[in-house]
Amino acid sequence: MPDPESTHLALYTDRFIESVMWAASDSGFIFSQYAFPWNAKPEKETTRFADRQMQQNESDRRRNQPGLMLFRAKDSNLDRMLLVYLVPEEPTSGVNLTVLRSVLDQLDKFPRADETLRLVGPTFSGSIAPLGRYLATRAHPRPADLVSGSATDTDAYEAFRNDRDLEDKKIHLRSTIEGDGRLATFFINTWMNAGPAARSPGLAKTKPLTALFSPT
């Protein structure tokens, strides 16, 4: 999910968390508890060096911890619990691998019949290749099913899916939205096939461009 502290994408973080809650509800769970390591409000600036250093150390400590969301079954069955780990991600540096490593190390301590990792992400297209390489090069790589609802780089998806090492280790990536490449091709083809009248500036003022994409 987008890092709410080091980026200006706190709104997207809220939407991501809300989506997780809706998905869990659709799967028969209700929200119970949470623990988020990031601050909801910016820290106050201080002039003393020692105080600034202490704030920085505390910030570094928190940023190396995952967020947690705990859900319980709607049928009150205490044996059915759902724990969601939240790993921060930035558009430039990608997924916080320190946090992800700690999460995967925790999961490795609890072996299950289904060893497949379920990851919602990555959030940004630039994280696709590095995340795949990290999962594939772990000491004991596990099968993984990644689903992204925001990364749109078609070339990055194709490179991931064509990577033989990832395929052999059963690390798969899917998307819930169309990629940039397909959308660009669809737009150009639709625009070119619309005819001169539909492409004229005068018509654009009276007919929404989205009408060109309406089924006929």
Series of secondary-structure elements, N-terminal to C-terminal: HEHEEEEHEHEHHEHHH
List low-confidence stretches: 203-216
Average residue-wise pLDDT? 83
Q: Which term fits the overall shape?
A: globular
Number of helical stretches of at least 4 residues:
9
Total count of strands: 8
User: What gap, in angstroms, lies between the N and C termini?
Assistant: 38 Å
Range of strand content: 15-25%
- Rounded to an integer in angstroms, the radius of gyration calculated over CA atoms is 22 Å
Proportion of residues in helical segments:
40-55%
What strand line-up does the widest sheet have? 1-2-3
List the domain count as a whole number: 2
Specify the structural class: alpha/beta
Task: Please give the largest β-sheet.
Answer: 3 strands, antiparallel
If you had to describe this structure to a student in words, what would you say it looks like?
With 216 residues, the chain is α/β, with parallel strands linked by helices. The protein folds into 2 domains: 110 residues, no CATH class; 81 residues, no CATH class. Helix content is 41%, strand content 18%. It is built from 9 helices and 8 strands. The strands form 3 sheets. It has a 3-stranded antiparallel beta sheet with strand order 1-2-3, with helices on one face. The protein has a 3-stranded parallel beta sheet with strand order 6-7-8. Strands 4-5 form a two-stranded antiparallel ribbon. The longest helix is centred in the first third of the chain and has 17 residues. It is globular. The C terminus is likely disordered.
Task: Write a compact overview of the structure shown.
The protein has about 220 residues and is α/β, with parallel strands linked by helices. The protein has helices spanning about 10-25, 50-65, 95-110, 130-135, 155-160, 165-170, 180-195, 195-200, 200-205; strands at about 30-35, 65-75, 80-85, 90, 95, 115-120, 145-150, 170-175. Helix 4 (about 130-135) links the parallel strand 6 (about 115-120) and strand 7 (about 145-150).
